Amino acid sequence: MEGKSHVVRKQYLIKKGFQLRFMIVIIVSMLLIAAVTSWSIYSALMQTLINQFHGENLALIKHAITYKLFIRSLLLVFAIAVLSIFISHRMAGPVYKFENTIKALVRGEKVREIGLRKRDEFYDLATAINSLIKSMKR
Question: Rounded to whole angstroms, how far apart are CA atoms 117 and 134?
Answer without folding.
Answer: 20
